[in-house]
Amino acid sequence: MKQGDEMYSYITKGVCSSQINFDVVENKIRNVNFVGGCNGNLQGISKLVEGMDVAEAVEKLEGISCSGKGTSCPDQFATALKKLVLNRK
């Protein structure tokens, strides 16, 4: 990995998955892995965001709610991207 490329891990709050692990390479999302949660749906999300620009993923995923929780696994991933990647620049 080059300078600026990093691996991240985020502990989720209020959702079925407990953790999200991912890489950011040249501001593109790579290797997303949700720990726990709805396996099929989370595999789908992981594949859909693979190679996506960080800011674009936040725009698409932020604010999605699951079962009236006020958050969701996609929303938690957007939160992780904002806290760990976008707010560090």
State the total count of DSSP E strands: 3
Biggest sheet details: 3 strands, antiparallel
Total of domains? 1
Envelope shape = globular
- Using only CA atoms, what is the Rg? 12 Å
Measured distance between first and last alpha carbons: 18 Å
Summarize model confidence as the mean pLDDT: 94
Order of helices and strands: EEEHHH
Which stretches of 5+ consecutive residues score pLDDT under 50? none
Task: Tell me the CATH topology.
Answer: Enolase-like, domain 1
Find the structural class using helix and strand composition. Answer: alpha+beta
- Can you tell me the CATH architecture? 2-Layer Sandwich
How many helices does DSSP assign? Answer: 3
Characterise this structure.
- The protein is an alpha+beta fold.
- The chain has a single domain, classed as Enolase-like, domain 1, CATH 3.30.390.
- The protein is built from three helices and three strands; from the N terminus they run βββααα.
- It has a three-stranded antiparallel sheet with strand order 1-2-3.
- Helix 2 runs antiparallel to helix 3.
- It is globular and about 35 Å long.
- The relative contact order is 0.21.
- Its EC number is 1.17.4.1.
- It is an enzyme of class 1 (oxidoreductase).
- Belongs to the ribonucleoside diphosphate reductase class-2 family.
- It comes from Clostridium ljungdahlii.
- GO terms for molecular function: nucleotide binding; ribonucleoside-diphosphate reductase activity, thioredoxin disulfide as acceptor.
